[in-house]
Amino acid sequence: QSIAQEVVGLLCMVLLTLTALVANTVMMVVILKTPLLRKFIFVCHLCVVDLLSAIFLMPLGIISSSSCFNRVIYSIAECQALIFLNICFISASILTISIISVERYYYIVHPMRYEVKMTIRLAVAGVIFIWVKSVLITVLALVGWPQGNGATSASRCTVYWSPGAHKNIFVIIFSIVCFILPTIIILAVYCSVYRVARMASLQQVPVPAQAAAPRHRSDSIASQVTIITTRNLPLPRLMPERFLGSNKAILTLVLIVGQFLCCWLPFFAFHLHSSVATGTVGGGHGEMVVTWIAYSSFAINPFFYGLLNRQIREELARLRRSCLNRPLGQELCLSVSEASVQENFLQFLQRATCTLETHASCISPSPRNRLDQTKMGFPIPGQVPEESS
């Protein structure tokens, strides 16, 4: 039974590593080769961090976790290098996710401010900030390590087994800076995004006459956002279709936030408990499980932060068409269908609780529909605005 569990565990670790390698590589290639997608700087940076983790960190994690490599011995310097990569890449990945959530917030809630202030220089400064903060946090983990040419088993070359004199203090600081604070930011940001999207959809519901007098409504983006954020009228009763749309938006947000918590909460909870609780015995199997649950984030992130963007999906569809030699007309048909049914995550939130129009066949929208979409559409967060031909 233990041999079967060992084989299954090894296969799962190898599968996660291969998935992280392929998914992050594909996302990076699509973003870098498409000029209109090069504004996805932080998404591309997240793919770079996760790809580096899949190249360096996850294979070393397999060696540390599998009993097949029990006889592998690391020197003190090699163990320090492994822990340095571990903490640095984990910090960079989580901090990048936090910045992506803040960027999405400004795309939706303050679109005009974003267009003015979000520059390449600011994005590069954000990337530099992520790496400087990650390196500084990692250096704290190496404080108090013994000097010399000692050796240790690969299975004991982890943060839990670290011989650093200030390991417990580091774990607390590491958990606060790289998990607790980012979690608060992510929860606050996505709750605000959903609230704005929901109120935007409620504007389309007729307001009872006694609730408010008719008022002129401008169609500009700035006025729409102002109305959304300042309106304090009683909320009208939701129609069934809008209620279902609200549930879909909530489910989307739960998936995004839930994926982050499911991957990282066990990891940080384990290390916090091991540093605070007295008399804990050995990390062993428990540490291996929570570590690989956290590593699974490197393979899942490309799907949650890449494929949820409609433009990236369309570029992947074009790549698939070119590989399969699919006719252009069929590809255009799929593009129209995807744009109406499988909306971008952020488009979907902006239109949350609104009825989604599903097209059974590839029929170009009428001029009236195009006009309505133009009036109701917000700038697409995380994407370059599409030019109408």
From TrEMBL:
The chain crosses the membrane at residues 6-31, 40-63, 83-102, 122-145, 169-193, 249-269, 289-308. The keyword Lyase does not apply. Its main location: membrane. GO terms for molecular function: G protein-coupled receptor activity. Residues 23-305 form the G-protein coupled receptors family 1 profile domain. Keywords: Cell membrane, G-protein coupled receptor, Membrane, Receptor, Transducer, Transmembrane, Transmembrane helix. It is a multi-pass membrane protein. One of its GO terms (cellular component) is plasma membrane. It holds the Pfam family 7tm_1. Gene3D superfamilies: Rhodopsin 7-helix transmembrane proteins. It is found in: Cell membrane. This is GPRX protein.
